[in-house]
Design brief:
Blueprint: E1 3-9, H1 15-24, E2 28-30, H2 38-44, E3 52-56, H3 74-84, E4 88-94, H4 97-107, H5 118-134, E5 138-141, H6 147-158, E6 168-175, E7 186-189, H7 210-218, H8 220-242, E8 247-254, H9 260-274, E9 279-283
Helix pairs in contact: 1-6, 4-5, 7-9, 8-9
Length: 288
């Protein structure tokens, strides 16, 4: 029985990068597939050598029929596929409207739904995909990610399938000054902790460096915070798993996403790994 990963999302949010990354991981990738063909394609893919199949749904460019045709009936198709398969996951790629507009203006490509201009086309597509977005097992906000960072997220989420039956947890650090991530389930605000940014000798370093990490983790407030968060997660993660959640994203934010949140994300990820929880750690804004 093949395992299916359906990849879709907003045009300009990185479907091509995701498809290339999955192909590098050994997935059999079928790109630019209309929703109407998913079930027929699934029947054909139950063959040796096609155990992991990624179906990328969407229209990469303009021309021809309306891009909306590619999404027609997608929620019903996904429900039918899930009812008939042992493992079907949905990855949804998203970004804010402002980011998507800038990307289209930068590339000068035509939006697949570009009948009324880019901005209105993005609004139309967002309404069209709202119900699909709600069905996603994993949502990735690519607005603040470059192609290499998105590739890293894909590798972390789908690169090691040995623990595929367990819920995969991601811990992300971010800076509030760059906006709250769209793709998180639980957010912890770390701005109450003493800020290494105001210590001149620590400012050039990040939470990945020993001087900043030692400073942040040595604070009494940090120790108490980590203990409480660790206890909270130990109590609620099994409930998420029992409810069938495949992916959980936990975010820790500080002002700039470079010092406190980075050190705490690393420490929390280490604690969770020691508890046997499959976890990956990602720092969205550490290089800003």
């Amino acid at each position: 029985m093949s395992e299916f990963l359906v990849v879709t999302g907003m045009s300009g949010a990185g479907r091509s990068t995701a498809a290339d990354s999955l192909e590098d991981l050994g997935w059999f990738v079928i790109d630019n597939l209309p929703a109407a063909l998913i079930l027929k394609m699934a029947e054909m893919m139950n063959l040796p050598g096609a155990e992991m199949v990624a179906l990328v749904i969407g229209r990469g460019g303009g021309g021809g029929s309306s891009g909306s045709d590619y999404f027609d009936g997608l929620p019903d198709v996904l429900r039918a596929l899930r009812a008939d398969r042992n493992r079907v996951r949905l990855l949804f790629l998203d970004a804010s409207d402002d980011v998507l507009i800038r990307r289209y203006e930068g590339t000068r490509r035509r939006h697949p739904l570009a009948s009324r201009g880019v901005e209105k086309s993005i609004a139309d597509e967002r309404r069209l995909l709202a119900s699909v977005r709600d069905m996603a097992d994993l949502l990735i906000d690519t607005g603040e990610l470059n192609s290499n960072q998105l590739r890293s997220r894909i590798l972390e989420a789908f690169g090691d399938e040995s623990g595929a039956e367990s819920m995969r947890t991601s811990v992300i650090s971010f800076g509030y000054k760059y906006g709250l991530p769209l793709d998180v389930d639980i957010v912890f605000d770390c701005r109450f902790l003493p800020n290494p940014f105001w210590i001149e000798e620590l400012r050039p370093y990040s939470g990945l460096d020993t001087p900043v990490r030692d400073y942040v983790l040595a604070q009494p407030e940090t120790k108490d915070f980590l203990e409480k968060v660790d206890g909270l997660l130990a109590g609620i993660l099994p409930s998420f798993e029992r409810e069938g959640k495949s992916y959980l994203t936990i975010a820790l934010g500080c002002t700039g996403g470079r010092h406190r949140s980075v050190a705490l994300a690393e420490a929390l990820g280490k604690r969770m790994s020691e508890h046997g929880q499959p976890v990956s750690v990602f720092h969205r804004d550490v290089d800003r």
